[in-house]
Design goal:
heterodimer; A: 8-stranded mixed sheet; 16 helices; elongated; B: alpha/beta; 8-stranded mixed sheet; ATPase (chain B); ATP binding (chain B); ATP hydrolysis activity (chain B); ATPase_ArsA/GET3 (chain B)
Amino acid sequence: MSPGGAPVLDVNALLDDPATRIVVCCGSGGVGKTTTAAALALRAAERGRHAVVITVDPARRLAQSLGLTELDNTPRRVPGTEGDGSLHAMMLDMKRTFDETVAANADAEKAAQIFDNPFYQALSSSFAGTQEYMAMEKLGQLRRSDEWDLIVVDTPPSRSALDFLDAPKRLGRFLDGRLLRFLGSPARSGPLRLIGAGLGLVTGVVARVLGAQLLRDVQSFVGAFDSVFGGFQERAEQTYRLLQAEGTAFVVVAAPEQDALREASYFVDRLSAERMPLAGLVLNRTQHVLAPDLSAARASAAAEALETAGEHPLAAAVLRLHTGRVRRRDRERRLRDRFAAEHPEVGMVEVPARPEDVHDLDALREIGRALGGSDSAG
Amino acid sequence: MSSRDRDWDGARLHVVTGKGGTGKTTVAAALALALAAEGGRVLLVEVEGRQGIAPLFGVPPLSYEERRVAAAGRGEVRALSVDAEEALVEYLDLFHGLRRAAGALRRFGAVDFVTAIAPGARDVLLTGKVSEAVRRRSRPGGPHVYDAVVLDAPPTGRIARFLDVTAAVSGLARVGTVRDHADQVREVVHSAETVVHFVTLLEEMPVQECLDGIAELRALGLNVGGVLVNKVRPALLEDSVLTAAAGGVVDVDALARGLQAAGLPEPDGLARRLSGEVVEHARHVRMEREARERLAAAARPCYDVALLEEGVDLAGLHRLAESLRAQGAV
């Protein structure tokens, strides 16, 4: 089905193509990114790929359906998949990923020094952007390990879909920034003095607001961290380039609602500006109508006639129910068509809303089938 | 303000949180209208720069300036988008007389730096502005400028850290002036005048986050307000019909007879297709009821916020506000 005349997102072709190595699911919070990522990975595995899905904060029962019982940062084989392929799944532990990255890049003494630093502790557990950066870091690690031929990643829940692209750069820029370098220099002397009074004023204010101890923590952190990571910025850019590389595909997930589609729209524009490969849009949890020939107006008039006559209460209630569903679907279609008109090049696939939560592989398989276009529900 | 006894009489700062996608901005806006309905002046605040409020009221994007966005009965709602950079500049000016430093701070990216270096500092600046609005009086000893402030807060996953400002800064900024600022914010947030409401949908993940969030805030000693169940649809079918349908059983013959009586063509085929919709609906209702039962564990008053089938607009917000008042929330 070609929704509203927009091109179709051919999920099967995307997953079957051996050149596809990374699929990134992104979108604003609450649209079903994690479920979509899991369903894509399962479908790929059951079509013969050796897939791994990195999830961030999955619903408890979804995690259980993937056999994930603990957050241990290691991909685990998902039991019960069909066919010759395989599926692994892991939940991202942001702090642990950061710690492992430090440990892998520093000798034991240096690493211990970094771990002990109060500023590192805050940075690794609560800095806005660390989660996004670590999702990227983990993606890079798994890609380099070459153990899987397809990696599906779910992006962290952030206030906007764009955070996912910006946060790693922001973190890199922050750790490499001139202010931090200035603070990190052993003595405020030499050529740095020439930067002038402006910077001095700024550090003075910062010290006053945050306290001098914090600045000292930051200084010692930068000293230890810098020698370990060389250029953090460079590293952030490396992971960014991984996203632009051939074999990566972005799938934008959106609910058929105004806010989510507006975010999706920003995201699509941004991906194209950054030359990131966009596969298409998954319109998730759309209203499903089983009797599409009966319009809302006609159903509502019929319900009213029965109610006025005081007869057939079951039929009257069912017609009211149908009226609501058709109105909702029509509204969703208007939103969808507006998006399609603004982005005529973006392929789209619809996944109908399920009456119940997802808690087993069968439900994920069914979503996978809808993603593959084999659900013709109106 | 009112002679009626409402659940949240006495609260002046209503913090509204919820999992992403549950519609907390919509609910916060409806709550603000409900609070203003009897003549109050209410401030509705967003802190994440999402500009989610302006489109609901059909006004241009908000700025760091309180602006009237709606009249509600004899009262009014004003709105404000708090930005950490503006809040820092205002803070430096008010507390340190350092307005001229602002330019240099911006030039060197120091605002990003301050708010990034101590993530809690950003939250303190944002909650600091909200607290200031709550405490503001028209003149010393005079009445409060705002009868109530409604905060469209960060999502449930971040709300405890956002509100627990003292912990946020004490770990890092142990001596700086932002620490003192945090203490003042703490006083407002922990006072009996502040309640935190949770918005949820009747689905597994939002309910789980809601329960976790409530437990977390209670552990911090914050006042948990009500649970606002969003996007509730009216019950159309009788319980016995729903129970049977959830098991896949619908009286298709009775349905067909009704459709025929209503003059609809091909009643038998239509009845079969519509019965599929009934089964899906019944399973959805069953899931929603399970979710509602789990919510009962929070032992907080629950309020229903109806699904607006045609999307959210100002008229819809007024209907939601009226319904919140009818349920005795505010």
